[in-house]
Design a protein that fits this description.
21% of the residues lie in helices and 34% in strands. It folds into two domains: 2-115, no CATH class; 120-300, Rossmann fold. It has five helices and 20 strands. The chain has helices spanning 98-114, 142-151, 234-242, 253-269, 287-295; strands at 2-5, 8-12, 27-31, 45-51, 57-63, 67-71, 75-79, 85-90, 118-120, 122-127, 130-135, 155-158, 162-165, 168-169, 176-178, 189-192, 198-201, 210-221, 228-231, 272-278. Strands 9, 10, 11, 12, 13, 14, 18, 19 and 20 form a nine-stranded mixed sheet that branches. The chain has an eight-stranded mixed sheet with strand order 1-2-3-8-7-6-5-4, with helices on one face. Strands 15-17-16 form a three-stranded antiparallel sheet. The mean pLDDT is 94. With 302 residues, the protein is an alpha+beta fold.
Length: 302
């Protein structure tokens, strides 16, 4: 199966929630044999790692003779130094339904970062021919707000991962991955993912790069009753965007420097807002319409 997402031509024998495509693959993924995936770190220079509260490893990324992204007890993604040709090894008895979730999220983000691309932890929609990106950490409402605006007629650019190239963003994921409390937004084609999220495929998808009109950091609050946007100065915008890496625990100095420079260029070029939003879902009547109305003129704010 062939896909075109995030500016990449992808060939994968594992089905992925990405736009179909062709062209010469720049990333190849294939399913290898199942094998034990140990809890030890792979050999090589550690590039990223996140541990659980009990100090066991959730995932770890190392670059040596081979680059390996390891989820102990679940799977290894093993490939060449920049993960351009990747073999996937599932731990015996592990849930293979998690593979599309990990590939379309963490693996693609790691691949892009190893190639020094600028990636945001963001979901984005098309508003009037330009993209507006909701940026933030998990649980801040990025996917929820993108799905809600798709329900009002916007097209989805990408969910949870956004590649920025100059002032343009590339189409990516074709689904919003929602938490259980956002189920009421799921009026379209849906299914439950292996990690317990609700995947919602919106009616309309963007099929070409778009100019990025604005980045919006959501601040859902039970203490506000109306939508309010505040534009951040460049220094505060850079600080805020730096707080929300797509790959937690990243420690590769070269790509971190490239990312920081890319974010610095981004905040000089694209306005960044904090949006106070009344708590939801369920959203009070008029909140989503007010949010859309506030976002529509942002492409003239820069």
């Amino acid at each position: 199966m062939n896909y075109h997402a995030y500016g990449l031509h992808i060939a994968s024998d594992i089905p992925l929630p990405l736009p179909p495509g062709g062209g010469v693959p720049t990333l190849v993924l294939r399913r290898g044999e199942d094998r034990e995936v140990p809890h030890e770190r792979p050999q090589g220079e550690r590039l990223a790692e996140v541990s659980r509260p009990d100090r066991t490893i959730f995932y770890t990324l190392a670059r040596g003779p081979r680059t390996i992204l390891r989820y102990p007890g679940l799977c290894d993604f093993e490939g060449d130094p920049k993960l351009e040709h990747v073999t996937v090894h599932l731990h015996p008895g592990a849930d293979e339904g998690l593979l599309p979730v990990l590939i379309s999220g963490a693996v693609l983000a790691v691949h892009l970062m190893l190639h020094h691309a600028l990636v945001l932890h963001a979901s984005a929609v098309d508003i009037g021919g330009s993209a507006v990106a909701f940026v933030g950490s998990s649980g801040m409402g990025k996917s929820t707000l993108a799905a809600a605006l798709c329900g009002l007629g916007c097209s989805l650019v990408s969910d949870d991962l956004l590649r920025v190239d100059g002032g343009m963003v590339h189409p990516g994921a074709t689904e919003n991955r929602l938490r259980e409390n956002a189920r009421e937004l799921a009026s379209g084609d849906t299914y439950e993912t292996a990690d317990g999220r609700l995947a919602l495929r919106p009616t309309a998808l963007v099929d070409a790069p778009l100019p990025l009109a604005a980045c919006v950091v959501p601040r859902p609050s039970r203490d506000v009753t109306e939508v309010a946007l505040r534009r951040l100065g460049t220094a505060e915008a850079l600080l805020r965007l730096s707080r929300y890496p797509r790959v937690l625990g990243w420690s590769d100095a070269a790509s971190m420097a490239t990312t920081f420079q890319g974010l610095g260029d981004l905040v000089e070029r694209v306005p960044v807002f904090e949006a106070a939003i009344p708590w939801g879902p369920p959203f009070a009547d008029g909140v989503l319409a007010d949010l859309l109305a506030a976002l529509q003129p942002l492409d003239q704010s820069a």
